[in-house]
């Protein structure tokens, strides 16, 4: 009886075994670009942008009255011809159907024209928003990033040292987060501004100063913005810390954490390279949404501290029914949220290799 020689495995299977995988085929060359995934995500975000802009157009027009009616209520001496000219200038011409106004609105958007604001003396909406946007991004954006960083790092450490005295930070920060923000802001003003006189009561800079890039003005901005920034950090810290701590408790029970510890890896490496890196993934989407809504500002904060920003601008535009300004602010908020979600998708793919493999 002759011995049967073992046949060599196919090249594809041999390549898979050599690569240390269980796949039957191995992609040759460089990794393929996930064009199908990118196309689907691009289509999703484009559809979302179209839907948001469409709702942005029709929703204000469902309100009773418009900006011209509000203006005529304050100025009785305006002629009917001037009122009709104002409506035509603001895109509220009654001679055109709502569908025609919608297409005209898209035409203006594609040219980068957001219209003019009747509330701000017929100034371009883009100019009005560009003056308020830096104040909101500078204050609320900085405070949100600081609260996310402190809460995430603190929650990872508390979760890693579960059962220690550090667990007492969770109910404390959670209690501070349950306090209504307007009450927290008023308490901060009463204590640190009125009694201790450490910080100004409100505004973005001192009376009599004009915005300019000088050390004195920058110091005024930092001095006036410290107290509202601290209140934002205190109010939002508990949510970040609690979420990260709970995810750490879940991740620490996984097998790969026990294997890493059994191999004798340093605790700091296991904490930050394995446990915290996986526990932070659910936080990324929440952080992206927070970054997106930074542009909307914190209306309550801006009202309590008399701080200029996009939130206060949106509130004033809504009260005055200034359609062009409302639509411009909503458009900026929508774009910021979409961009933040795109960045979150990229962060997921960078932090989680499984996402890259699935997309590919």
Describe this structure in words.
Keywords: Membrane, Transmembrane, Transmembrane helix, Transport. It comes from Microbacterium bovistercoris. InterPro entries: MetI-like (IPR000515), MetI-like_sf (IPR035906). It is found in: Cell membrane; Membrane. With 360 residues, the chain is mostly helical. The chain has a domain at 128-359: MetI-like (MetI-like fold, Orthogonal Bundle), CATH 1.10.3720. The chain contains 16 helices and two strands. It has helices at residues 11-18, 35-61, 67-74, 80-89, 98-110, 125-160, 169-178, 181-195, 215-251, 255-262, 267-279, 281-294, 299-304, 310-320, 323-351, 353-359, and strands at residues 116-117, 123-124. The protein has a two-stranded antiparallel ribbon. Strand 1 (116-117) and strand 2 (123-124) form a beta hairpin. The protein starts with 10 loop residues before the first helix and ends with a helix. The model is unreliable at 1-29 (pLDDT under 50).
Element layout with pairings:
Elements: H1 11-18, H2 35-61, H3 67-74, H4 80-89, H5 98-110, E1 116-117, E2 123-124, H6 125-160, H7 169-178, H8 181-195, H9 215-251, H10 255-262, H11 267-279, H12 281-294, H13 299-304, H14 310-320, H15 323-351, H16 353-359
Brief digest:
This protein is mainly α. 70% of the residues lie in helices and 1% in strands. β1 and β2 form a beta hairpin.
CATH class of the domain at 128-359: Mainly Alpha
- The tally of strands reads 2
- What share of the residues does DSSP label as strand, in percent? under 5%
The third-level CATH topology of the domain at 128-359 is MetI-like fold
CATH architecture assignment of the domain at 128-359: Orthogonal Bundle
Which residues form runs of ≥5 with pLDDT under 50? 1-29
Describe the main β-sheet briefly.
2 strands, antiparallel
Class by SSE composition:
mainly alpha
Give the topology string: H per helix, E per strand: HHHHHEEHHHHHHHHHHH
Q: Looking at the chains present, what oligomeric state does this protein adopt?
A: single chain
Shape: globular
Helix amount, in percent?
A: over 70%
User: What is the arithmetic mean of pLDDT?
Assistant: 78
Measured distance between first and last alpha carbons: 50 Å
Radius of gyration over alpha carbons?
28 Å
CATH superfamily membership of the domain at 128-359: MetI-like
Q: Give, in spatial order, the strands making up the sheet with the most strands.
A: 1-2
What count of helical segments does DSSP give?
Answer: 16
């Amino acid at each position: 009886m002759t011995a049967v020689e073992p046949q060599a495995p196919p090249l594809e299977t041999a390549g898979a075994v050599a690569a240390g995988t269980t796949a039957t085929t191995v992609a040759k060359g460089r990794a393929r670009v996930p064009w199908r995934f990118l196309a689907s995500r691009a289509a999703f975000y484009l559809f979302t942008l179209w839907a948001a802009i469409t709702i942005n157009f029709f929703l204000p027009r469902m309100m009773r009255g418009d900006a011209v009616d509000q203006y005529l209520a304050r100025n009785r001496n305006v002629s009917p011809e001037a009122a009709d000219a104002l409506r035509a200038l603001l895109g509220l011409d009654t001679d055109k159907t709502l569908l025609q106004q919608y297409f005209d609105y898209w035409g203006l958007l594609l040219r980068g024209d957001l219209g003019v604001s009747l509330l701000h003396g017929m100034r371009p909406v883009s100019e009005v928003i560009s003056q308020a946007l830096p104040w909101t991004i500078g204050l609320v954006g900085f405070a949100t990033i600081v609260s996310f960083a402190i809460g995430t790092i603190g929650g990872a450490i508390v979760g890693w040292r579960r059962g220690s005295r550090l667990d007492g930070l969770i109910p404390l920060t959670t209690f501070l987060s349950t306090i209504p923000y307007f009450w927290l802001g008023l308490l901060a003003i009463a204590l640190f501004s009125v009694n201790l006189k450490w910080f100004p009561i409100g505004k973005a800079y001192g009376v009599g100063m004009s915005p300019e890039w000088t050390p004195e003005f920058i110091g005024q901005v930092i001095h006036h913005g410290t107290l509202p920034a601290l209140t934002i950090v205190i109010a939002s810290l508990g949510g970040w810390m609690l979420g990260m701590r709970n995810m750490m408790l879940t991740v620490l029970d996984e097998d790969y954490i026990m294997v890493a510890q059994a191999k004798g890896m340093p605790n700091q490496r296991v904490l930050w390279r394995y446990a915290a890196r996986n526990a932070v993934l659910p936080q990324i989407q929440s952080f992206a949404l927070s970054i997106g809504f930074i542009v909307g500002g914190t209306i309550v904060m801006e009202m309590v501290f008399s701080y200029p920003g996009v939130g206060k601008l949106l509130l004033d535009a809504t009260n005055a029914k200034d359609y062009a300004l409302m639509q411009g602010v909503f458009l900026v908020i929508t774009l910021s949220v979409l961009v933040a979600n795109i960045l979150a998708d990229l962060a997921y793919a960078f932090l989680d290799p499984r996402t890259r493999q699935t997309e590919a």
